[in-house]
Amino acid sequence: MSSYEGLAASYDALTTDVGYEKRADFLEKLFRRSRIPVHTVLDLACGTGSMTWLLAGRGYELIAVDGSQEMLAAAREKNAPAEVPPLFLHQSMPRLDLYGTVDAAICCLDSLNYLTDPRDVQRTLRRLHLFISPGGLLTFDVRLPERLAALDGQVFLDETDDTYCVWRTEFDAKKRLCYYGMDIFRLDGAHWTRSFEEHIEYAYEPDELLSWLQEAGFTHVRQYGDRVLRAPKQDEQRIYFSAKKD
């Protein structure tokens, strides 16, 4: 089963601890550092659209892109207050193709780590540079290699009234890949059904990402800790990058 095919229906219920409001607050702080006013925003790898609808409700015009039809279906079913409803597109990150430009682009919750071929990250950054307006902003977060390596051998349990999810992780240092084997049990009437899917993340070094951002044409690249306007510390769960297009 492909990533998120079985998880999409239960993703929001199992990720109530993400803290979207605080992440949106931090993104808006970065937006204010843009060289141009931010009105239109691309949410790349939008998932079930939680951040998409949150920012739309704050007055931004959103274009939301994801490679999973199931996650997009969940996103489209939401109906949060928004003056302009988001536009949802089914596209892969390296093949991003918009109708025009945006003032800012975001890519949240280590979505770039899910591109397990470094060439796809480079392609994605070039496509983002193409579709961000001059003076506009790109921001994304990633998990550092040491954080992914620390997950090796870990088992995580998430549950709701009708879903039980078991995550088992394995990190391959040679391949720089973190594997998440996921058993999902969902209550279907009086019976439980089981599905399995595997997620894989690549451990990118910050210096690699910095180099690829610059090669794509971005400038003023900055790194931040997890939702804080300071340099990252060693134990950050995620670090944020911001970059500008001249």
Folded structure, characterized:
By secondary structure, the protein is an alpha/beta fold. The protein contains seven helices and eleven strands. The strands form two sheets. A seven-stranded mixed beta sheet has the order 3-2-1-4-5-11-10, sandwiched between helices. A hairpin with a 4-residue loop joins strand 7 and strand 8. The chain is globular and about 55 Å long. The mean pLDDT is 94.
How is this structure best summarized?
Helices cover 26% and strands 35% of the residues. The model has no long low-confidence stretch (mean pLDDT 94). By secondary structure, it is of the alpha/beta class.
Key phrases:
246 residues, alpha/beta, four-stranded antiparallel sheet
Order of helices and strands: HHEHEHEEHEHEEEEHEE
User: How far from one another are the termini?
Assistant: 42 Å
Shape: globular
Helix content: 25-40%
Ordered list of secondary-structure elements with their pairings:
Blueprint: H1 11-14, H2 20-31, E1 40-44, H3 50-57, E2 61-66, H4 69-77, E3 87-90, E4 102-107, H5 118-131, E5 132-142, H6 145-149, E6 155-159, E7 163-172, E8 177-188, E9 191-202, H7 206-216, E10 218-224, E11 239-245
Parallel strand pairs: 1-2, 1-4, 2-3, 4-5
Antiparallel strand pairs: 5-11, 6-7, 7-8, 8-9, 10-11
Helix pairs in contact: 5-7
